[in-house]
From TrEMBL:
First and last residue of the signal peptide: 1-22
Alphabetical keyword list: Copper, Metal-binding, Signal
Gene Ontology MF, one: oxidoreductase activity
Tyrosinase copper-binding domain ranges (all copies): 105-122
Protein name, as recorded: Di-copper centre-containing protein
SUPFAM superfamilies recorded: Di-copper centre-containing domain
Alphabetical list of Pfam families matching this protein: Tyrosinase
Length: 376
């Protein structure tokens, strides 16, 4: 009798100590893209295309306006708005460098902001376009051996395939597949264009001669092998900033996956862009695969948070990224930003498009607000 009455209490205690919230009893489960049914893939591609047809928010308020980012476009779609957010909050490499504290890269909020950003697109897909699923992840370590030939890029089914490499004779435009030019999927930033991809496993060769670049000849896929990812999750015990630095650095897996896809994912300027356009990963989220990539980044972060008890609440990093100093020694030493320190009360910048959230609200994915988990 006594044992029975204790059981519910015990399960609540266990639930809370596992990081889950008592209110989050039925988390949405994020799945591996390769394991989705055709219906689930279709629902995803349809919802992304649907957002690109919905009107944008006229009340968007840019916060940084780096010199190489255009003003909001009256033609922007709800999908473009989401891209604009990422463009605006890139570290300001301009006379506005003091606003770099609003950056969402190379400082303490990188992992949390991108967790929120990916979740928010999932919410938009569900609320505006009737999407039924959660954000899938691209398990790129499985595909590291042969990214170019992996199924995610070779599947050009016009309804369910998100693959297709760009045509070199047509500005690297992806022509086939559910998000290719023939589908009508189009983007408005930095100028109106179709999705572009430009595969290279040595994507940093053009950066040869840039003094702050670590190794222009590095092979991108060697940074995200299953062994490297396992070591990342198992390493940096209790060391949040060490973990983030090993994940986010120029020659590390997060950036390498962006770089290997090329085109929009690497922020290459579309043909015919004005002079202010400079290659940077500002508009990398034009590439819808960005969200499958960042779902995977978040999944690795979640695995790391749950790997050892001392990882669970580990947190650190500053607010001011040092990227604008173009100095690799600084980038390595201050990979997660300079003082003032980021705190859990720090609010995520959202450009007046969405409700602001704090890092605390995003700390664990199985909490009240996020309430999702990963299938493995
Ligand atoms: Cu980003």
């Amino acid at each position: 009798m006594f044992v029975q009455s204790l059981l519910p209490l015990l399960s609540v205690v266990l639930l809370l100590s596992s990081g889950a919230s008592a209110a989050c009893t039925n988390p949405r489960v994020r799945k591996n893209w390769h394991k989705l049914t055709l219906e689930e893939k279709e629902d995803w591609t349809r919802s992304i295309a649907c957002l690109s047809q919905k009107p944008g928010n006229p009340n968007i308020i840019p916060q940084v306006r780096p010199f190489n980012v255009p003003p909001p476009s009256p033609n922007a779609s709800a999908y473009d708005d989401h891209v604009y957010l990422h463009m605006d909050l890139y570290p300001a490499v301009s006379f506005k460098r003091l606003l770099a504290f609003l950056s969402v890269h190379f400082n303490g909020q990188f992992l949390f902001w991108h967790r929120w950003y990916t979740f928010q697109l999932e919410e938009e897909m569900r609320n505006k376009c009737g999407y039924k699923g959660s954000m899938p992840f691209w398990k790129w370590d499985d595909d590291a051996k042969d990214v170019e030939g992996s199924e995610i890029f070779t599947d050009v089914d016009p309804i369910t395939g998100i693959g297709g490499w760009g045509n070199p004779d047509n500005d690297w435009t992806v022509e086939e597949g559910a998000l290719g030019a023939k589908s009508g999927f189009s983007l408005n930033y930095p100028i109106k264009h179709s999705l572009r991809r430009n595969f290279s496993n040595q994507p940093w060769i053009p950066f040869e001669g840039i003094p702050f670049w670590p190794d222009p000849h590095a092979k991108a896929n060697e940074t995200f092998t299953p062994e490297k990812i396992e070591a990342l999750i198992d390493g940096f015990r209790g060391d949040f900033t060490g973990f983030q630095a090993e994940f986010e650095g120029w020659d590390k897996s997060h950036f390498a996956v962006h770089s290997v896809i090329g085109g929009d994912a690497t922020g290459q300027c579309p043909a015919g862009s004005p002079d202010w356009c400079q290659q940077a990963t500002h508009w990398s989220s034009n590439e819808p695969m960005f969200f499958l990539h960042h779902s995977m980044v978040d999944r690795i972060f979640w695995k790391w948070q749950n790997k050892y008890p001392e990882n669970k609440e580990a947190f650190g990093g500053g607010t001011l990224p040092v990227m604008q100093y173009f100095n690799n020694e600084y980038m390595v030493r201050f990979a997660t930003g300079l003082s003032p320190p980021m705190t859990r009360r720090s609010a995520m910048p959202t450009l007046n498009i969405y409700k602001t959230r704090t890092i605390q609200e995003l700390f664990h994915i199985e909490n009240d607000y996020l309430c999702y988990t990963y299938e493995d």
